[in-house]
Write a structure and sequence with these properties.
Belongs to the sigma-70 factor family. It holds the Pfam family Sigma70_r2. GO terms for molecular function: DNA binding; sigma factor activity. Helix content is 64%, strand content 0%. The longest helix is centred in the middle third of the chain and has 22 residues. The chain has 3 domains: 107 residues, Four Helix Bundle (Hemerythrin (Met), subunit A); 76 residues; 58 residues, Arc Repressor Mutant, subunit A (Orthogonal Bundle), CATH 1.10.10. By secondary structure, it is mainly alpha-helical. It starts with 15 loop residues before the first helix and ends with a helix. α4 crosses α5.
Length: 253
Amino acid sequence: MNYSMIDLPDLELLSEEETRYYIRLAQQGDKSALEKVVEHNLRLVLKVSYRFKNSGYDLQDLFQVGVIGIIKAVEGFDLERGIKFSTYAVAKIIGEIRLHLRDDGLIKVSRSLKKIARVVRQKEEELSQKNNQSPSISELASETGYSREDIIQALEADKNPASIYQTINPDSNNDLYLLDSLANKSAEKELDNFDKLELVEVLRRLDKRSRKIIFLRYFEDKTQQEIAEEIGVSQVQVSRLEKKILKELRMSL
């Protein structure tokens, strides 16, 4: 897959059920399934990448890093947990971009702490997947051979980006993933402020049906067919209307 240009394919959004189906295939080694999930989430990658537009980096470069994040999201997504894929993916994409910015020199962390944090985070994910619960700091210390103090210091120094499997309260009997916290808050809210005022103003100019189509399509993640059934028109009509509305929005923005 080569996305050298930010020219996104006009693809239907996958339902959560479809997404999970293709992720399962991708995790079994089906490269075409992996590519399908990635391509259907490129809008999300671009949206997250745009959040870092003031970082001094070219948007296209950030987008490329974001694509790596979505690939890692597909590979690491736990289908058994009740987490929406887009929530997990947003966290992964943001983490990958922040990791890129950090490693490129914007955030300095000593090499020794980087090494400890890398080993610990890898072990965290392994144990989390294996036991279906977050490991405690003591368990990580036992598994990696590092002291509790070294682990805490490394994770603290390297907390941008924080591991989505990081234990929020490691000394509690009921460990809680950072991922669970993100899910409860909905990581998509990270994106709510993107050109919010401008977008709200433009949306207000649309007629009622157009606003509903945009809301259902891009805020409720519904397919064109689902929207067609809800508003009482054909899927082809929804497709035409969506393209027309998007063209109007682009011109206004």
